[in-house]
Amino acid sequence: MKVIHLSVECFPVAKVGGLADVVGALPKYQRKLGIDASVVMPWYDRKFTQENKFDQIASGSFYQGSEQLHYEIWKEASDQLGFPLYLIRIPGKLDREEVYCYPDEADQWLSFQHAFLHWLKAEQIIPDLINCHDHHVGLVPFLLKYSHDFQQLSQVKTLFTVHNGQYQGWMNWSKGILLPSFDTWRWGVLDWDGLINPMAAAVKCCDAFSTVSEGYLKELYVDANGLQALFRAESQKGYGIVNGIDTEYWNPLLDKLIHTQYDSTSVKKGKYENKKALCQQYKLDPSLPLMSFIGRFAIEKGADLLAEIIDQLLGKVKAKMSIFILGSGDQDIQAALQQMMEKYPQQFAVYFGYNESLAHQVYAATDLLLMPSRVEPCGLNQLYALQYGTIPVVRGIGGLKDTVIDMEEPNGYGIVFPEASVVDASEGAVRALEIVAQADLLSEIRDKEMNLDFSWHKSAQKYLDLYTKLLN
Question: pTM to 2 decimals?
Fold first, then answer.
């Protein structure tokens, strides 16, 4: 079975969020199941492409509107990621440093999808299935069905995986002239509320769509930023498959990015040594329980609540604890956190930016991980936390609800609070601190967490079962 994963992110080439982690791990585990899985993504002028060898295997050109674009296909030479990786480079479009935030982003993703299909057609590459990840490649299922240019690929099956339904790739209809030739009477398939909506088109045209947790699939039926009626109408082809994690990369016993390696038998000493190293660097007290937040400073992540949560815990409640935050994003949120650092210099520290090595150290060092998310399709941070014996303190939504069992439930190992609010998150943190204060209970919880199986093995098998169903 030949499967191509199509995505604009893939770790370690280019990572902004969890999409990259999924695309960088799932194909590796699928190949262990006998699937001929590969990844195709845009070329970025980043560290990975600069420091690794790539072979050019194809090139071609096509018109996007009146503009002729030339593309090159580059294959990573060593297969070091555990799967074949192909990058599409288009001078002026797909040759930039950052993944997002360019004013012509719609043109970028259109050119990426067009070049991908043009390459398959020119080289007569006919996969069994294309797994399209999020709206950036949401037009591929439509073009396979209705574009005159790609009729020889029309029988290729498509699975569209929704990583975040809030972002849909909306485009004004003036962009319609940039699309490859298609049956114009099918224009309504592209349209949603007067705009070209790639996510809506993908849901309408794909053979099946999946979400990154079972809980998030149900949530899309009631809240999908305007597409909930469409998801309900197409529900017969919807599947929820919770994400896994790459336990070869996220493994505290093998992790070379942390200060001290450990496993479930040495977790107490290992975590303390890592905490001591982190606290020494950021001038915090290692004798205190340490809670962290790692992620984008975005409202959907509940990051706008962080400053007030810190003030509530360290000021009003006067909790004997320290807090460390690693992330970047909204400037107002950053400014509020900077004020908290000035207000509580001995108990709170923050690192503004993206730092993969530091993230590993934080998971290894902290006792608690806070996730006050308003939207969380799956969430991977809580799974990394569990792998490192860190108690997740999460809002009960989406994949967080699917993967964290509250301590008050049978076999519980985390804290789940009901609403994305300062009060609920703070109360959840206080409950978690009570666990940390009980040495025997903490040891029991950590042992339970670190022996849970949230690897990609089970999830990869579920994808294989779904692929097989579609192909049969």
Answer: 0.93
